[in-house]
Design goal:
The protein is α+β, with helices and mostly antiparallel strands and 201 residues long. The protein has 5 helices and 7 strands; from the N terminus they run E-H-H-H-E-H-E-E-E-H-E-E. This is UFSP1/2/DUB catalytic domain-containing protein.
Length: 201
């Protein structure tokens, strides 16, 4: 599969959820990997890999002994912890983990996420238990009075050929989601790659 077949920065045309407040987004470019985007059928189990955006994670997880050899070629899920191992192993980039025990605690981490996007600007991986659907987080929006907080979700569960970014918005694969709309019975783990942003010249 050629990278030019994948859409670049799928969140870039999406307006903030509210006109007031402040929005903090990731920096840099990324390709949108989703179910079956390379012809490999991973519907129902591959969202963690697609969020990680690298099918080579399968091999890496075996090489670093996080998974037994039978894991290679299997259809076992990976989570945020495995994503951390892969990012660290492949790119020598450490990751911060935020463990959120309940949905209503997501809002308590708004300042940390805002600071992360300002300082490091990476794409965050988010996964949980009751909400086991892995997703990327590309930004946060905090309303002017801080009463509404949204996360910019990049959902890898799309299946098929994507024609435009707007198609992803219409079908809610790329969307602003209020923190109250996350599953309240689920814990969440967030993987924040600690990358250094190059300063403008």
């Amino acid at each position: 599969m050629e990278l030019q077949e994948l859409l670049l920065n799928v969140h870039s045309n999406l307006e903030p959820p509210k006109p007031d407040g402040s929005t903090y987004l990731m920096n840099g470019n990324y390709h949108y990997y989703h179910y079956g985007c390379d012809g490999f059928q991973d519907v129902g189990w591959g969202c963690g890999y697609r969020t990680l955006q690298s099918i080579c994670s399968w091999q890496t997880l075996v090489e670093i002994k996080d998974k037994p050899e039978r894991f290679f070629g299997s259809r076992e899920w990976i989570g945020t912890l495995e994503a951390i191992y892969v990012v660290d192993t492949l790119f020598d980039v450490s990751c911060k983990v935020i463990h959120i025990s309940k949905r209503d605690n997501i809002a308590k981490h708004a300042d940390t996420l805002k600071e992360y996007f300002e300082t490091h600007g990476g794409l965050i991986m988010m996964g949980g238990d009751m909400d086991a659907a892995s997703k990327g987080i590309a930004g946060i929006h905090i309303s002017a009075d801080s009463s509404d907080i949204y996360l910019l979700v990049i959902d890898p569960h799309f299946v098929g050929k994507i024609k435009t970014k707007e198609e992803l918005y219409t079908k809610n694969y790329v969307k602003w989601q209020k923190v109250e709309e996350f599953v309240d019975s689920s814990f969440y783990n967030l993987c924040l790659p600690i990358v250094k942003i190059k300063e403008e010249l």
